[in-house]
Specification:
This protein has five helices and five strands. The protein has about 160 residues and is an alpha/beta fold. The chain has a single domain, classed as Cobalamin-binding domain (Rossmann fold, 3-Layer(aba) Sandwich), CATH 3.40.50. The chain has a five-stranded parallel sheet with strand order 2-1-3-4-5, sandwiched between helices. Helix 2 crosses helix 3 (about 75-90) and helix 3 packs parallel to helix 4 (about 105-115).
Length: about 160
Amino acid sequence: MTAAGAAPAGRPARVLLAKPGLDGHDRGIKVIGMALRDAGAEVIYLGLRRSVAEIVAAARDEDVDVIGISVLSGAHLALTRALLRERDAAGIADIPVTVGGTIGATDAATLRELGAAAVQGVGTPLPQVVDTILGIATATRAATDPTTDTVVVRG
């Protein structure tokens, strides 16, 4: 990732952000979206109360490098399980999923065991969230783009 957030091969990192389930609080994910945009990423924000199927379809259709969800309702384990299952069934298992929200240490470990690429709970510093998501996007792009010889990570 360059300082401007460009993914390998010159295209900006594409990040899909969404709020699955019935959670109605979206200020945090909007701040993250703006910070990612300011870092040079292309951000697709689906908004509140998106179904797992809507998130997966958008990720596939928009050719994103990473999916980020935010869950403050306590349903992060069930929603992440469903999202990962749907993502895999759709044939896009190569798109990593990051999870943010109100998540305790035990559940964070469980989410990583389930296959979440990163878990960033409430209180994670914004620059760390941005760097983590852009780093994951860079790794995804490098793994799926055969023309990429090198990867430069922000930092």
